[in-house]
Amino acid sequence: MKQNVDISISKFREHDKKFRKCNDTGIDDGGKSYHHMQGNINILVSAPHSVKTYRKTEGKTYAEIFTGSIACYLHELTGCHTIYKKYNDGTNANSDSDEKDGGYKNAVKSIAKKYNIKTLIDLHGMGEDVMGVNTEIVIGTGTKISGDGETASIKTSKKVIEIFKKYEISADVSYGKFNAGHPNNITKYIHNTDPNIESMQFEISAKYLNLDEIKPLMNALVEIINCLNT
Description:
Helix content: 25-40%
Number of helices: 6
Order of helices and strands: HEEEEHEHEEHEHEH
Strand order of the largest sheet: 1-5-2-6-9-7-8
CATH topology: Aminopeptidase
Number of domains: 1
CATH class: Alpha Beta
Distance between the termini: 17 Å
Radius of gyration: 16 Å
Shape: globular
């Protein structure tokens, strides 16, 4: 049975305001470029590209719109811990080394240790028609071979896929594009630090990163968090 969480679009917009400031770069307040919202369960949701971020491989700078506000709203709805980028500091937390990513991965590691995090979900956005991608959600578990050093168990991945399916959202684990297998990828880095933390990267189709389609996505994510928290 599907959940029917009351998702308020106006509240969603309110969460999103801070990420849209200064043309999606956020506001440099002189402090850390990321922010942790403390939760009360052992799950951490991350949004490292919530503001504009430079991609060396593409030579482009852009934000993955709504990933930050999704993370913040999930904190409100489920009590999960949340970490997101507040402003663009010129680093990329999901590709730069932990010495050059503005402190983001080390912050995730510290949060995970302090609050006994069991599951990390790292949110990202992708286009609707990405070559080599046949699903609306790509789940990266850090490997090119099923069962070989995956950052989340096959059992957990199957649970997540089945929940997305309930909301008519197609999802699958990728052993190719977006597999999150680079050691500087947040989920891979954290799992390498502590193999007891199940870590998954969710690449979300742009189809669901708009306010007309956000409700089924949010309901699915809330159910996934609640399921993994049991």
